Amino acid sequence: MAADLGRCVAAIAELTRGLAGTEPGDHTGLGDPADTSDPVRAGGQADADDPAGRRRPAASFRITHVGTGWVMATSDTDAFDRVYEAGHARAVMWRPLPDGSTAYTVGRRSDLVDGFPVGPAEAPGTILGALAAREPGWGGGSSIGGAPRRPDGSRSSLHPDAVFTIVEAAVTAAG
Description:
Residues 17-57, 139-158 are annotated as: Disordered. The protein is of the alpha+beta class. Helices cover 25% and strands 18% of the residues. The chain starts with a helix and ends with a helix.
């Protein structure tokens, strides 16, 4: 078991070597508005369903709010990996939907990241609990959760500024 643990630690160290020197908040090229200007920019991923091998754009994000040890960002795609790569281990991702509602995902890189009590919604003092108290239907687990999913396909009616205020209050209360 000790040998297995040693191999795992070595593998994790190797994976994180590329992150050395990356400062939190330094997301050059990951969330810059220029990232979205070229729909097939370098860094995209080959689309397996495209026989021509064209590249789809890599996920990018834009930080809209900065909280106490966490960020709130918007993206047209699932950009959590990019947010984490940029050094933000605690985040709320959001995007407006065509029906006027907003999709939100609250997450932390892992359960080992403290200072960001995501959920579950039933637990007192959690972010999802605070959001569910304001708008029923928020749910998820200890490291990731999100806005209600209504039968008509709509999501949250809360404005991003309101979500920021609720999340920030939960984070500072958890201290």
